[in-house]
Amino acid sequence: MDPSRRFDTAPVPRAWIEERFGPEHLEHIRNQTVGSSSNGMIVLKSQAEEVAAYFADAPRGPLFPPATPPEVEAAEEIIGSPLPTLLRRVYTEVGDGGFGPDSGLASLTDGRRASGDLIDWPCSVTRHERDCAAGLPGSWLYLASGGCTMQWHLSLLAVGNPVLLYDADGWVPSWGEGPHDGLRHATASLRQWLWTWANGGNV
Fold first, then answer.
1. Of 4, 5, 139, 159, which is most buried, counting CB atoms within 10 Å of its CB?
2. pLDDT tens series, the chain, 203 aa
3. Do both 23 and 81 map to the same domain?
4. Residue 196 and residue 187 in contact, taking contact as beta carbons nearer than 8 Å
5. What's the chain's Rg over C-alpha atoms?
6. Do 172 and 104 share a structural domain?
7. What is the domain extent for residue 191?
8. What does the buried/exposed string (b/e) look like for 58-91 if buried means 16 or more CB atoms within 10 Å of the residue's CB?
9. How many domains does the chain have?
């Protein structure tokens, strides 16, 4: 797996861009910059030529190895529902999270940690248990962070397994509202959601 395309965006060192393309190039790409950090990294869309050049010699492969069938079965037992065939294949044939739209798919197994990270990668099963305790439907499976209070969830029951963008702060129980009032967007199917991301589109 190309590490430059694991997520929607990728960080590239400012100093490397200046050295490779010249100091004036930073002004040239200013409108394409998604963000920056205090450690000298500039965040660009993963399709940017600067990202491709920076990661050209990086080792290929998933951030985490694929989940094993017993790990998937253990997750399904806790969730209380089988995973859709496509999602099961993604986890067992590509990798146990660590790639995909926005911040990337959560892992099915707890304790995954990327090299250099100080905290574990989000675990979909752990988040599912926490979400259910907070009142979210048990048929919603956490997929990935959407930034701030936004979260991507998969509907395990609806036809086509739509992917739901949910705002955790988007509903007020004391007003008689429920989690469905926090929904902000829905993609018709998991297949469409992943395909849009794989083609470089905006999910």
1. 4
2. 666 677 777 778 888 888 888 888 888 887 778 787 777 888 888 778 887 787 777 766 678 999 999 999 999 999 999 999 999 999 999 999 999 998 899 999 999 988 777 889 999 999 999 999 999 999 999 999 988 899 999 999 999 999 999 999 998 888 999 998 999 999 999 999 999 988 888 88
3. no
4. yes
5. 18
6. yes
7. 69-198
8. eeeebbbebbeeebbeebbeebeeebbeebbebb
9. 2
Q: Considering only CA atoms, which of 110, 108, 116 is closest in space to residue 76?
A: 108
- Model pLDDT, residue 1: 61
pTM over 0.85: no
What CA–CA distances, in Å, run from 150 to 135, 145, 163, 170, 185? 16, 6, 13, 9, 11
Q: Are residues 183 and 83 in the same domain?
A: yes
How many angstroms separate the first and last alpha carbons of the chain? 20
Query: Based on the domain organization, do 40 and 74 belong to the same domain?
Result: no
Measured in whole angstroms, the distance separating CA 97 from the mean position of its chain's CA atoms is 8
Same domain? For 48 and 87 the reply is no
Q: Does 154 share its domain with 190?
A: yes
CA–CA gap between residue 141 and residue 32 (Å, rounded): 33
Give the Å distances, CA to CA, from 109 to 51, 95, 104, 155: 29, 11, 15, 20
For residues 74 and 104, state if they share a domain: yes
Residues 98 and 38 in one domain: no
